[in-house]
Structure formats: C-alpha cells, structure tokens
Amino acid sequence: MGLKLRMAIPDVELQAGVEKAVNNQTSWRKANLTCKIAIDNLEKAELLRGGDLLRQRKTTKESLAQTSSAITESLMGISRMMSQQVQQSEEAMQTLVNSSRTILDANEEFKSMSGTIQLGRKLITKYNRRELTDKLLIFLALALFLATVLYIVKKRLFPFL
Questions:
Q1: Where is the protein localized (predicted)?
Q2: How far apart are CA 55 and CA 43, in angstroms?
Q3: Contact between 37 and 30 (Cβ < 8 Å)
C-alpha cells in the first residue's frame, strides 16, 4: 500500500505540471496572435497614409542621392590623398634603401681601410724594431772600428807593449 501512495503523489504533481504547461502554451499562442493582429493593423494604417509617405520617400531618395554623391566625392578625395601618401612613402622607402646601400658601402670601405691601417701599424712597429737593431749594429761596428784603430795605433806607437 505504501508503494501505491508514493506512485499517486508523483502522478498528481505530473498532471498539475502538464496542465500548467498546456495553460502556458495556450496563453503564449493567444499573446502571439494578438501581437500579429496589432502589427497587421499598424501596417494597414501606414498603407492608408501612403500619399504622404510617397512624397517623403521621393524627397528622401533625392536627399539620399545627394548625400551618396557627396560621400562618393569625399571618398574619391580620400582615395587621392591616400595614393599621394603611398607615393610619398614609396619615395621615402627608396631614399632609405639608397642611403642604407651608401652606408653599407661606406662600412665596407672603412673595414678595408681598417685592415690597411692595421697593416701599416704592424709595418711601422717592425721598422722601429729594425731601426733599433740598426743603431745597435752601427754602435757595435763603430766600437769595433775604434777598437781596431786603437789596436793599430798601439802596435805602431808602442811596439814593445
């Protein structure tokens, strides 16, 4: 018996929920139909006042045509300005490319000059060392010459020594 009582309660709640859903669906359909009728009535009223609307449409079309031509002219002006800007940008880009090429050439020339300067520095250092060596050799040769002259003078002036 407890099982039947439990089954009866959900059936009652289920039936109440179904009835609410059906009532809601019916209410929604009625509201939808009412809105459609109101929209149809408004459209009929607008059609009956059609003479004024046609004049307004003609003036609106003329003003729209004037507005669209003005907008077209404005857009054409903007297009011309943009093409001028693009041309100026291309010229600036070409100038940058040329200056970059000149800078790269100058950089390469400076690199080659740097190598030449390094070579010159090495040669000058080498010649300074040779100059020192030559001075030392000249000094030693002069000392040998003077020693030889003194030896010869000593042997001739003082043969007994």
A1: Endoplasmic reticulum membrane
A2: 18
A3: no
Q: What is the amino acid identity at position 86? A: V
pTM for the model = 0.38
Can you give the three-state secondary structure of 135-151, one letter per residue? HHHHHHHHHHHHHHHHH
Reported as a single tens digit per residue, the pLDDT across 51-68 is 555 566 666 778 888 888
Please name the residues in contact with 161: beta carbons below 8 A apart, sequence gap of 6 or more.
154
Task: Report the alpha-carbon distance of residue 56 to residue 53 in Å, rounded.
Answer: 5
Q: Is 90 exceeded by the pLDDT of residue 159?
A: no
Q: In the chain, where do the E strands start and end?
A: none
**Assigned token pair, 104:** 């790269």
